[in-house]
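Private note to self, pasted from the team thread so I don't lose it. Backbone tokens:
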């Protein structure tokens, strides 16, 4: 979603909610975006380590734990962005 479209929609009463304003502030932070992008890159690396048969039980356990952590991170990202942008706008944004 382009920045200009988001600004136009900020006049909507939905965006006046304090929780929505906080969510917008979070997703507009460049460190937040960098964190989510780094998470995608790290997750890709860990997915590449997954092979069959797994060489060690400890690697299998580590991959299982990292999968859960990255899943949680991505659920948090989707939750914050869908609240901040509104679900309809979140789904329209091709970047998401």
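Design output:
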């Amino acid at each position: 979603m382009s920045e200009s479209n988001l600004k136009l929609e900020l006049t909507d009463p939905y965006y006046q909610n304090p929780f929505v304003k906080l969510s917008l502030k979070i997703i507009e932070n460049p460190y937040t975006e960098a964190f989510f992008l780094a998470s995608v890159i790290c997750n890709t690396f860990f997915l590449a380590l997954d092979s069959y048969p797994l060489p060690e039980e400890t690697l299998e356990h580590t991959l299982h734990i990292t999968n859960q952590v990255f899943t949680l991170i991505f659920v948090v990202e989707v939750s914050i962005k869908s609240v901040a942008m509104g679900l309809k706008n979140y789904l329209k944004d091709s970047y998401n």
